[in-house]
């Protein structure tokens, strides 16, 4: 076929990812994670992440090529996350991508990690309807984006003014003395608790608050206070109930605001991406509320929600197919890319 064969490299945080797509078809998605090396610190340690990327880069590349059954020389273009992310971590991926592109004489595309979280859905559910409203929920970002063109036109509709949703999960897990990363653990525990056990606050939902912005630091503090009070009173902490009630406060606001943004703008397609999109309650509540509002919702399968190389390759393939110009050979990292 004439569809572009694109290899994508992701190293913005703690996952070293190499993915390969042909057009909108996923051929390989190899991921090496340093998450366990960060666990005892309760969060990603940038220097540890950089060193892990350096060690994992070449082996992960080979795993992806084996999985796809192609040779490196077969690819039409190389895409890489240029930002946002940790400076040292990004540098490993960008340096590798530039070296491979230069050695092979192939075009290089530096891409936005956040747009890639949205674009990956294409390999799961086909071309993205435009416009699509995207809810991007990860450890570093929580944003509502209106996607008019995945390659060139994405508008920021709203975002968190403090903690990201995933960050809130990680911090609350820490308060509850649960392991890092907190999202998957709280997701699992919440299934055994009552979501209405504790009335935690819904951030920025007052009449004067920005309609599409989020705030999770007040919620985190409320959970901390609740835990402190229970401990001071010598009561056992009902961890499953705290997890379920906290989770409900997060996903209630995420889904309500995103669907309100869709309605106000007349956008009937919603895509949810980023690590927190793996959350079972978020997926269920978004589906039921979207159905009530006549909105089509798409969420990629779980392993495509967390950081990976396929998302970068998917966005790269869209850029190649749209005839976008490649990045310059002096492409740099942009840790605070908007
Ligand atoms: O997208 P991602 O892999 O990396 C960033 O770009 O940040 O997201 C990682 C975040 C972590 O905060 C993690 O706790 C959260 O996603 N996460 C979840 C779940 N799985 C991962 N949060 C809630 N529920 C989950 N099932
Ligand atoms: Zn991410």
TrEMBL record:
GO terms of molecular function: iron ion binding; tRNA N(6)-L-threonylcarbamoyladenine synthase activity
GO CC entries: cytoplasm
EC top class named in words: transferase
Catalytic activity from the UniProt record: L-threonylcarbamoyladenylate + adenosine(37) in tRNA = N(6)-L-threonylcarbamoyladenosine(37) in tRNA + AMP + H(+)
Cofactor binding, note field: Binds 1 Fe(2+) ion per subunit.
Binding-site positions, Fe cation: 113, 117, 307
Subcellular location: Cytoplasm
UniProt cross-references to PANTHER family, sorted A to Z: TRNA N6-ADENOSINE THREONYLCARBAMOYLTRANSFERASE, TRNA N6-ADENOSINE THREONYLCARBAMOYLTRANSFERASE, MITOCHONDRIAL
One GO-annotated biological process of the protein: tRNA threonylcarbamoyladenosine modification
Primary gene name: tsaD
UniProt-recorded name of the protein: tRNA N6-adenosine threonylcarbamoyltransferase
């Amino acid at each position: 076929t004439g569809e572009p064969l694109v290899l994508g490299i992701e190293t913005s945080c703690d996952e070293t990812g190499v993915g390969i797509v042909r057009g909108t078809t996923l051929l390989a998605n190899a991921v090496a994670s340093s998450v366990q090396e960060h666990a005892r610190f309760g969060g990603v340690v940038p220097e540890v992440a950089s060193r892990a990327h350096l060690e994992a880069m070449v082996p992960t590349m080979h795993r992806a090529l084996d999985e796809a059954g192609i040779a490196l020389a077969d690819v039409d273009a190389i895409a890489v996350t240029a930002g946002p992310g940790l400076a040292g971590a990004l540098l490993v991926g960008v340096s590798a991508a530039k070296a491979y592109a230069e050695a092979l004489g192939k075009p290089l595309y530096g891409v936005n990690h956040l747009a890639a979280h949205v674009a990956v859905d294409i390999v799961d559910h086909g071309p993205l309807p435009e416009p699509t409203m995207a809810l991007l929920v990860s450890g570093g970002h929580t944003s509502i984006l209106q996607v008019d063109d995945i390659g060139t036109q994405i508008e920021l509709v709203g975002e968190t003014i403090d903690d990201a949703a995933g960050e809130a999960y990680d911090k609350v897990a820490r308060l509850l003395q649960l392991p890092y990363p907190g999202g998957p653990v709280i997701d699992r525990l919440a299934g055994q608790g009552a979501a209405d056990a504790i009335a935690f606050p819904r951030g920025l939902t007052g009449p004067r608050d920005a309609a599409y912005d989020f705030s999770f630091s007040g919620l985190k503090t409320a959970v901390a206070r609740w835990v402190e009070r229970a401990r001071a009173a010598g009561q056992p902490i009902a961890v499953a109930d705290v997890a379920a009630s906290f989770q409900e406060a997060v996903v209630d606001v995420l889904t309500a605001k995103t669907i309100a943004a869709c309605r106000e703008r007349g956008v009937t397609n919603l895509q949810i991406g980023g690590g927190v999109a793996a959350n079972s309650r978020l997926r269920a509540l978004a589906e039921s509320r979207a159905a009530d509002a006549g909105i089509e919702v798409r969420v990629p399968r779980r392993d495509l929600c967390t950081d990976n190389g396929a998302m970068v390759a998917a966005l790269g393939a869209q850029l190649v197919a749209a005839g976008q110009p490649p990045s310059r050979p002096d492409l740099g990292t942009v840790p605070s890319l908007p």
